[in-house]
Amino acid sequence: MAAVEAQVQALFALHGPRYRWLATITVMLGTMSVVLASTIINVAIPTIMVEFQLAQDQVHWLATGFLAAMTVGMLLNAWCAQRFGARGAYLLAMGLFIAVSIIGAFSEQFPLLVAARIGQGLLAGLIQPLAMITIFQVFPLNRRGQAMGIYGLGVVLGPAMAWRYLPGKDCQLAAIRLDRAGVLLLAMGTTAVLWGLANGHRRGWGDPLLLVTLPGGIVSLVLFAFWQRRNPQPLMDLRVFRYPGFTGSFLMSMVIGAGVFASTYVTPLYFQQVLGESAASAGLMLMPAGLAMAFTFPVAGHLTDRFSETRIMMAGLVLFVLNMVLMAGATLTTSAVWLVWWTLLGRVGLGLMMPPSSTGALGLLPPALIPQGSGIFNFARQIGGALGVNLCALCIQFFSDRYGQTDPAASLAQAFEYGFDRAFWLLLIVFLLALWPLHAMRRGLIRKLL
C-alpha cells in the first residue's frame, strides 16, 4: 500500500493539483463502454425475441448473464489489481472487453450472443471498481462526493490515458493467491439460482431438474460464504460487514441495482410492446431520462459533500417510488409525453441515490478495507440488478400469459400492459422495503462521526 501511495504522490508532483481530475477522467473512460454495454441491448430485445423466437423468460439472459458475470468480475478485481497493478489490470480488461464485444457483434446464434454478453460482464466487473478505488486514493474526504458525481456524469476518453495517470503495481506487497474455489462456488451458485428462478414458470416448479438446481445453487452460495470466512485470502473479505451500517449500505446497493438495471430493461420494452413504438423511437424516448440522470450525478455529488448521504438518498427513493406508481397506473391511452416525463423523474431519483450510496458505504470503512469494500459494494449492485431483471422478466411473462388465458379476446398489448404493471409494482415494493437498510446505513454513518 505504501508503494502505491508513493506512486500517487509522485504523480501529484509530476502533474500538480490537476492530477486528481486527470485520474478521475481516466477511470471514467472505460466505464462509458461498460455502462453502454450493460444497457445498449435493451432496446433491441423485442427484435431479438422475434429473430430467435424467444419469450421474455428466455431473452432476459442477455441482461441477466451480463450482470451475473459482472458480479464475479468485481470480486476478482482486488486480486487482479494486486497481480497486475491498477494500470495493467485496466489495460488488460479493456483490451479483452473490446475483443469480446467484436465477437458479440458478429454472432448469429443466440447461445454465442449470450456467451459474449457473459464475457463482457466479467471484464466490465474488473474495470468498474478501479474507478472508486482511484477516487478514494486521490481525493480528500470532503471532496469525494463531488468526484463521484463528476465521475458518474460521463465517460469519454478511453484507456489511452491509463498508462500515464494510473499507479502501477505495488511490488512490495506479497502475492495474493486467486481464490479459485470461491470463484467456482460463486459462479455455480449465482448461475443456478438465476436459472432456477427464470425457468420455474416455463418448466413448472415441480420439475426434477429445477428441484435439484435451485436448492443446489443456494447450497453453493452458503458454502461460498463459509469458505470466505475460513480462507486467509478470500475473494470477498467479510470483515467489512463488522462495521456498523455496511450491511445496510450493501442491501441499499442491491436495491439501487435492481432499480437501475430492471427499470432500464423494462421501460424500453414497455414502449415497444405496449405502445407499439419502434426500437429507435423507444431509444429517443429514453434519451431525456438518461441525460437527466447523467446531469443529476454531479449535483448529487456536490450535495453529498454538504448534507447527509441518507437524506439525499431518501429524496431519490421518493422520486423513484413516485415514478413506479405513475407507470403502474398508466394505460394504453396514456400520452407518451407523460411516460417520458415520469421516466425522467425516476432517473433523477436514481441519480440522487447512486453517488451518496457509494461515498457513504466506503466512508464507513477504514482505508485498508476500501478496495475490498468497493468490490463488495459493486457486487451488491450488480447482483441486485441481475435479480431485478430476472424477476421482472419472469413477472411480465407470467402475468401476461395469465391475462391472455383469462381474457382470450384481449389484445396482445393489453396482456403485456397487465404484465408490465405488475413488474412496476414489484420494483415499487422493493424500494419501500429499502427504508429499513437505509435507516441502518444512517445509524452507521452517525456512529462513525461520533
Summarize the structure.
This protein has 450 residues and is mainly alpha-helical.
Spatial gap, N to C terminus: 28 Å
SS class: mainly alpha
The helix-strand sequence is HHHHHHHHHHHHHHHHH
Estimated share of beta-strand residues? under 5%
Q: Please bin the fraction of helical residues.
A: over 70%
Average pLDDT: 83
Low-confidence runs of at least 5 consecutive residues: 154-160, 162-168
Choose one word for the global shape. Answer: globular
Radius of gyration: 21 Å
Number of strands: 0
Q: How many H/I helices?
A: 17
Name the descriptors.
80% helix; globular; single chain; mainly alpha
Structure description:
The chain has helices spanning about 1-15, 20-40, 45-50, 55-60, 60-105, 110-140, 145-155, 160-165, 180-205, 210-230, 245-275, 280-305, 310-330, 335-365, 370-405, 410-435, 435-450. The protein has about 450 residues and is mainly α. Helix 9 (about 180-205) runs parallel beside helix 15. The two termini are about 30 Å apart. Mean pLDDT is about 85; it is low at about 155-160 and about 160-170.
Task: List the topology elements.
Layout: H1 2-15, H2 19-39, H3 45-52, H4 56-59, H5 61-106, H6 110-138, H7 144-153, H8 162-165, H9 180-203, H10 208-230, H11 246-273, H12 279-304, H13 309-329, H14 336-363, H15 370-406, H16 412-433, H17 435-449
Helix pairs in contact: 2-6, 2-7, 5-6, 5-9, 5-15, 6-7, 6-15, 7-12, 7-14, 9-10, 9-15, 11-12, 11-14, 11-15, 11-16, 11-17, 12-14, 13-14, 13-16, 13-17, 14-15, 15-16
